[in-house]
């Protein structure tokens, strides 16, 4: 059996926030709201449209605004103490992936304090056949996610990543119980994204679409979303990057693309570009979108091999066809050529050109990552990337030596 799952309600259109939040009172009859966000968004007044609406509806609220990038378990536990003391029946996450991940973990610990993290984070090959059954969510509070960047798609995914600051362990938690109940994609919250965030999150969304499209779990349902997301990103990312708030249409389109790509990978999953980017970011503190951008073309060339050493596990198709799949995306976004080989090469070049237009450098080295530090951590990164939850859905099952080679190419050659 295959599946397609999204939050119960996904609202979108510039300015839709107050209309969507109306439901908290008029449809769900909620009594207390708890906001989770980061310090920057809180101090710069981004929570005001939400709190103004809650005031208007007479719903009391509290706000936890200490979420850091790459949120830690300790940060979530601080928020949880405030959450428990207040006792809300709706949690509203505002921000990028970090705020939404942290809010999902706080929601989980609020609903089920008895849960053991090691059990929840247990790896699996198929999300439908977990040996550990996730507890039912939403008994105490519903979850509303409001993104402020156009990249992670976390508002429509069942994933959350949290780091234990004492051990350094990153816990990837994945289960459809963690899907938010409502996602509100309002471009008003995305207008002031800085250029660096626009480019990094935009390429992150493109990587989500590409990896979902060639995943062993890709289906007709996810394919349409991945194709449309890719087309929107090619059409609107350069304008969103160059003009920012001066082009609200480009901003809104990128918000849509991010959520579409999020729905695609929430159901088809990702591949080794994300496995490797997770570790590159963790070890060398590169923004996640940049880490993906530095690796994506190398991974595409690797996946496009018509005779891989090992195929992906449990693929939905009899023969390797990643190159043909990449070419389908390429043609959909308007790239041509006399045959698949030429289309594929033109597509790789188009991605490189797009990255250049939005200010992304060519190599890991260009980002000032010290060569010795990179080489010293390389073997550990490779091993951890190989064991990453995303590796299993890649169309080509990697050897560690092949992953190492891609890391080295991304460092030196770009």
Explained architecture:
The structure is a single chain. This protein has 15 helices and eight strands. The protein is of the alpha/beta class. The strands form two sheets. The protein has a six-stranded parallel beta sheet with strand order 1-8-5-4-2-3, sandwiched between helices. It starts with 8 loop residues before the first strand and ends with a helix.
Strand order of the largest sheet: 1-8-5-4-2-3
Unreliable residue runs:
none
Helix percent reads 40-55%
Q: How would a textbook summarize the main sheet?
A: 6 strands, parallel
Q: Residue-averaged pLDDT, rounded?
A: 92
Q: How many E-type strands? A: 8
What sequence of helices (H) and strands (E) makes up the elements? EHEHHEHEHHEEEEHHHHHHHHH
Round the Cα radius of gyration to an integer and report it.
21 Å
Assembly annotation: single chain
List the SSEs and their pairings:
Blueprint: E1 9-12, H1 17-26, E2 33-38, H2 39-43, H3 48-57, E3 61-67, H4 73-86, E4 90-95, H5 97-111, H6 117-120, E5 142-147, E6 159-163, E7 170-174, E8 182-185, H7 195-214, H8 220-243, H9 248-268, H10 272-284, H11 288-303, H12 322-332, H13 340-357, H14 371-386, H15 400-412
Parallel strand pairs: 1-8, 2-3, 2-4, 4-5, 5-8
Antiparallel strand pairs: 6-7
Helix pairs in contact: 1-3, 4-5, 7-8, 7-9, 7-11, 8-9, 10-11, 10-14, 11-15, 12-13, 14-15
């Amino acid at each position: 059996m295959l599946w397609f799952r999204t939050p119960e309600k996904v609202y979108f259109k510039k300015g839709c926030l107050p209309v969507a939040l109306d439901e908290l009172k008029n449809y769900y009859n909620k009594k207390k709201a708890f906001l989770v966000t980061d310090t920057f968004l809180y101090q710069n007044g981004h929570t005001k449209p939400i709190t103004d609406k809650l005031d208007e509806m007479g719903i009391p609220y509290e706000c936890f605004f200490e979420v850091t990038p790459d949120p830690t378990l300790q940060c979530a536990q601080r928020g949880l103490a405030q959450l428990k003391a207040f006792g809300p029946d709706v949690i509203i996450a505002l921000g990028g992936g970090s705020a939404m991940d942290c809010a999902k973990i706080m929601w989980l610990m609020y609903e089920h304090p008895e849960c053991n993290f090691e059990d929840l984070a247990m790896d699996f090959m198929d999300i439908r056949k977990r040996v550990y059954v996730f507890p039912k969510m939403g008994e105490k509070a519903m979850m509303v996610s409001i993104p402020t960047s156009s990249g992670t798609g976390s508002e429509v995914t069942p994933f959350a990543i949290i780091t234990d600051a004492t051990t350094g362990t990153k816990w990837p938690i994945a289960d459809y119980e963690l899907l938010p109940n409502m996602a509100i994609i309002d471009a008003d919250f995305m207008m002031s994204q800085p250029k660096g965030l626009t480019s990094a999150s935009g390429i992150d969304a493109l990587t989500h679409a590409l990896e979902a499209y060639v995943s062993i779990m890709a289906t007709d349902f996810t394919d349409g979303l991945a194709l449309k997301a890719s087309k929107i990103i090619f059409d609107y990312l350069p304008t969103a990057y160059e003009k920012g708030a001066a082009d609200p249409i480009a901003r809104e389109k990128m918000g849509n693309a991010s959520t579409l790509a999020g729905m695609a990978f929430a159901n088809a999953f990702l591949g080794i570009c994300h496995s490797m980017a997770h570790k590159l970011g963790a070890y060398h503190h590169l923004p996640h979108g940049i880490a993906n951008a530095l690796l994506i073309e190398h991974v595409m060339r690797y996946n496009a091999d018509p005779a891989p050493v090992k195929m992906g596990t449990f693929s939905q198709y009899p023969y390797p066809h990643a190159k043909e799949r990449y070419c389908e995306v390429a043609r959909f976004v308007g790239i041509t050529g006399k045959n698949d080989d030429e289309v594929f090469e033109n597509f790789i070049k188009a991605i490189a050109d797009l990255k250049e237009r939005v200010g992304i450098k060519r190599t890991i080295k260009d980002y000032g990552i010290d060569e010795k530090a990179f080489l010293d951590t390389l073997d550990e990164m490779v091993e951890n990337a190989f064991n990453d939850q995303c590796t299993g859905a890649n169309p080509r099952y990697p050897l560690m030596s092949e992953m190492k080679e891609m890391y080295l190419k991304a460092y030196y050659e770009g």
